[in-house]
């Protein structure tokens, strides 16, 4: 039997009394490694819930229902009779709160709730990689699905068609927009929650890991009065961060800046920001056409996806407007062939586009990294000289045992100037096969040799799997 003196009120406060009563568990103390709890019955629900709250191992001591009630009545105030009934709504609400709160605390960009045949898997994307967070039974999954769809203003009766919605979430006095997407799978609806961190934007161009020459070139592009500047890279490569950093640096009272985004990710005072809303007829192309009638100095289009948007952006940039946008290509020079494939006239490309920034994000090793010497494997597959010092992930509490701590930017800045025009023009006309990503690969190898990234991440990048 647990000694009354062992009960820690601070531990108790972390679990609402209605949840404790509903699941018949009472966490009474904790140390660095584990939480100690009384339970009448040890269920999957209770184990998952306490794991969500404390992020530690759970050690149970079984007690009778009578003994459990005595502890509850002693340490929780005003326990009503209705609390003794299994309140799944309370449990599901608390579990959902923990899913999202935990993900925000870890800096996750997305939460995946995926139904399988006999269970559901919850994964979170941290530093660009999906990690298994929890597994739960289908009962909890179904309840979570219903609750999240309700909060996102989605139709809970519609299970055959994809849906989109939005949840507003508060955490530690900060508000987050969470975009919810559902899609039917063979075992039920899969949910993906995209977390938008809308708080004060902390980044500046000079602290985004660009080298001095690249910062100098980016500033040259920023100072231009007109022209199209494009940022390219795959999803999750930091394109939005770079765009917002540029907009923040030019945001002044004497400049009219308007953005068209899908959706607005960071709110910046002094800038007119428009959300794409296809139901209301606002697309990137229609929005851009309307913005051009609003006396803009600078326009930011979230992405060039189609021929119409590309042509409007190009023509706007040669008629006195400054236009920033993103596009999905693997390298800076491939932007020109991509736009040509979209139907853009060749003569416009070199006149309108003033510069392209190509970038990727690669996982940065935590300080707990382990040193080792490169061998034949590294030499064969990564063209790394054997015998040089490399590092691999280890894992510690600071990095949540992942071995990684954030991501680092690798990038290329291509200016469309007299030094590069002939090379670009030749590429546009011939589409010849060149190593378009050579600059990015070289930067990646430098990071590897400096012990910033692992050989596994380096190899993934140079083999193209990161794209």
From TrEMBL:
Residues 292-306 form the Bacterial type II secretion system protein E domain. GO terms for cellular component: plasma membrane. Belongs to the GSP E family. Pfam families: T2SSE (PF00437). InterPro entries: AAA+_ATPase, P-loop_NTPase, T2SS/T4SS_dom. GO terms for molecular function: ATP binding; ATP hydrolysis activity. SMART domains: AAA. This is General secretion pathway protein GspE. It comes from Clostridium folliculivorans. Keywords: ATP-binding, Nucleotide-binding.
